Each structure stands twice: as structure tokens, then as C-alpha cells.
Amino acid sequence: MDPALTQEQDEIARALRDALSKQAGMEEVRAAAATPVGYDAELWRRLAEQLGLAGLALPERHGGTGLGPVELALACEEAGRVLLPSPLLASSVLAATAIAGCADAAQRDDLLPALASGARTAALALPGTPALALGLVPDANPQPFLGDVPSGGGRAGGIQAKPADDGYWTLYGEAVHVLDGARADLLVLAAHAGGFPRGRTVLFVMDAAGAGGGAAATGSGASGAGGGAPGLRRERSAGIDSTRSVARVELRDVLARPLGDPARDAGPVLASVGRLAAVAVAAEAVGAAAQALARTVEYVQARQQFGRAVGSFQAVKHRLADVYVAVETARSAMLYAAWSAVTAPEDPVPALLALAHALTAQRTAAAEAIQLHGGIAITWEHDAHLYFKRAAADELLFGPPHLLRARAAELSGVLAATGTTRTGGATTR
């Protein structure tokens, strides 16, 4: 591995940082997060058109820029630095990767160009939290017929699917932690099909603004809580982190088309989505942690106490030095995981460990920021709390770190899988 970034990669990060520094300050971020759509749609359009952000990791034949996980990680790091509310994670990483991995050629040609251009957005609806549904953390109650990745429906709740007419399926159920699910134009839904004997996960796609699963619908998907399609209800949840929109999606006999072959289990595709999502979220966490640290260092240099800067006290220096080490090592782990996604795409362990380390660094940096800003009587309106809330929300959605490490240990063979015991060298459930 060559740890040095290429000139092109440096320019990608620099261009995005310059654009966001001018157009995504904290006031703009707060205002965008408070809008019904949850982000600045005009800014997203400009970033997609001028920098190719929406299709950064999608192939050129589908309208993307054809770059890879390293470039995507660098972009996510810059987005995380300013806590950018955008469809980058939900649409460009989660949903687009699921479509690319599961859809047939005609569906990919139909769906991906609009996502790559930023003209449309998509959301991936999963059972439970993304961490559990994407196999990032161990399942405490594994269901053998569902494989390594938990499925929707069944005893776990989620969404159930059964065949209808003309290639459509009927979906019934709900997903409660859908990133950008309230306003996305397209919904990619992970549902349980086949009953207990032939249980499997199947991915479906539907136009959230109209009926059924047509991919070429013209609706914006930004209608109210009803969602537009008959039987579909979408409602934005009041989450901890206002900069990351999360929604509840309810389906009552909604028609949708399967992505690809409905007889094929989509569990492996969701596992690959989880690996890329882990890298992307780790990169966002590293960017947020680095910015929280930078703002804290700036503050303690300006804040005076006993006739000298707060940052000149040895105890403060030691605390900030510890945060700096955590952030830099997390960034190294994140870049290694992004590089491993190219060289060893089937190995999820680097991504899991990078995410665990990044979430820990983000929480540490955000907590120290609040502590070391304490002399100004911190309030919820201060920007430091935005970083603290992002750290807390990320651990709820994609962690926590100790379970990410436990999953990595399971996959590496260091520990027995959850719900199993080792007997005489053999592993039994």
C-alpha cells in the first residue's frame, strides 16, 4: 500500500473543501437541516453538476465519474467536516450501491444515471438499524435461514413481500431508521419473502411519488407524509442529529418491482453495501472529529484565564494531544479501509475496525470540545453540540464501537460468533 494520496485525490478533497467552506457554514447547515427536505437541494445540485459528488463512485457508463472508495472516502471526510446535510450517504452510497449490486442491466441503466447526476435521490429502507441490517454488528438473535445479514419481515418485523400480478410484488410493513427516507424520489426496500422454509431477503424499488415500481416516473418525491404512492406513508423522525434526516416508512399493500431476480437472496449485496457504508461513515466521522478538534484548539488559544491562554496549561495540552492522536490514527485506519475496499473487497474487517476507531475518535473529540469550551457556559445552540449530537447519532445508527469490534473479531475467527459456543475445537449453535 502506498499511503500517499495522488495529486488527483488531493485535488478532489481540496475542491470540495473550498466549495463547502464558502457555501456550507454552520448557519447554512442549520438552515438546510431545518427545511422540510432536510438539506439544501440547490447546493446538492451544484455539487453534483460541478464536482460530480452524487456519482463519485458510480461507473461512467451510468453517468458517474468512475472513481473508487478512496475518492469517495475523501469526499465524505470533507462532508463530515462541516456536517453537511445531503443525500450523499443515503443516496450515493447506500441506495446506489444496492441498486448497482442487485439490479439487472436494464434497471441499472434506468435508475443509476439520474442518481449519478443528482437529478433524483434514493433511500434504502432496512429492517432495524443500518448497523444490524447491513451486518456491521453481531445479531444477538440470529435466524439461521436468513444467513449472515438480517432480513426484513418474519419474527424480526420489517417488511413482508408476496408476489402480485404483472411482475409486481405487494409489500406490507415498516422501516423505522431510513436515512433521507421522508423525501427521497426512489425507495429501495429490503423485504422478507418466501416464508420460513425458503426465507430470503429481496430488494424492491418503487417511485415514492407515484404508484408501483416504475423507475422513470417524474414525481419529485417531496410530497407530504403520505409519500404520494397509494399505501405508502413517510414521516421524518425527530432524531438526535438534525443534520442527518431519518424517517419512518410504512407500507400497506404497496406495489413494487424487485431489483434483479427475486429468487436470489440479496443478503450478500447488503453485506457489500455495509462494507462501503462503513468506510463512508468512518470518513465522515474522521472529518467531524478533525473539525471539532480544530475549533477547540482555536478557542483555547484565544480564551484567557489567569492572564494567559487556556491552551497554554499543560493539562489542556495533554487532553488535546490525546484527541489529535485519536483523530490521526482513525484517519489512517479509514484510508486503509478505503484502499482495502479496492484490493480485498470481500474482507469487511478493515472497514469495521476503521468505523469503530473513527466513531470512538469522533465521540472523544466532540466530548472534549464541549468540556474545553465550558468557560463560555455552553448551550445547545453552540456549534459544538452539533458535533456531539452527530457522534451520538452515528453510534446509534452504525455502531456502537465495541459491537463493531466484536463483529470484526467474529469474522476474523478470533472469537466465536454470537450465539455459538466452541466445543473441542468445533463451533456449534
From TrEMBL:
<keyword id="KW-0560">Oxidoreductase</keyword>
<dbReference type="GO" id="GO:0050660">
    <property type="term" value="F:flavin adenine dinucleotide binding"/>
</dbReference>
<dbReference type="InterPro" id="IPR036250">
    <property type="entry name" value="AcylCo_DH-like_C"/>
</dbReference>
<comment type="similarity">
    <text>Belongs to the acyl-CoA dehydrogenase family.</text>
</comment>
<dbReference type="Pfam" id="PF00441">
    <property type="entry name" value="Acyl-CoA_dh_1"/>
</dbReference>
<dbReference type="InterPro" id="IPR013786">
    <property type="entry name" value="AcylCoA_DH/ox_N"/>
</dbReference>
<keyword id="KW-0274">FAD</keyword>
<dbReference type="InterPro" id="IPR009100">
    <property type="entry name" value="AcylCoA_DH/oxidase_NM_dom_sf"/>
</dbReference>
<feature type="domain" description="Acyl-CoA dehydrogenase/oxidase N-terminal">
    <location>
        <begin position="6"/>
        <end position="118"/>
    </location>
</feature>
<dbReference type="InterPro" id="IPR009075">
    <property type="entry name" value="AcylCo_DH/oxidase_C"/>
</dbReference>
<feature type="compositionally biased region" description="Gly residues">
    <location>
        <begin position="214"/>
        <end position="230"/>
    </location>
</feature>
<dbReference type="Pfam" id="PF02771">
    <property type="entry name" value="Acyl-CoA_dh_N"/>
</dbReference>
<dbReference type="GO" id="GO:0003995">
    <property type="term" value="F:acyl-CoA dehydrogenase activity"/>
</dbReference>
<feature type="region of interest" description="Disordered">
    <location>
        <begin position="214"/>
        <end position="239"/>
    </location>
</feature>
<dbReference type="InterPro" id="IPR037069">
    <property type="entry name" value="AcylCoA_DH/ox_N_sf"/>
</dbReference>
<feature type="domain" description="Acyl-CoA dehydrogenase/oxidase C-terminal">
    <location>
        <begin position="279"/>
        <end position="408"/>
    </location>
</feature>
<protein>
    <submittedName>
        <fullName>Acyl-CoA dehydrogenase</fullName>
    </submittedName>
</protein>
<keyword id="KW-0285">Flavoprotein</keyword>
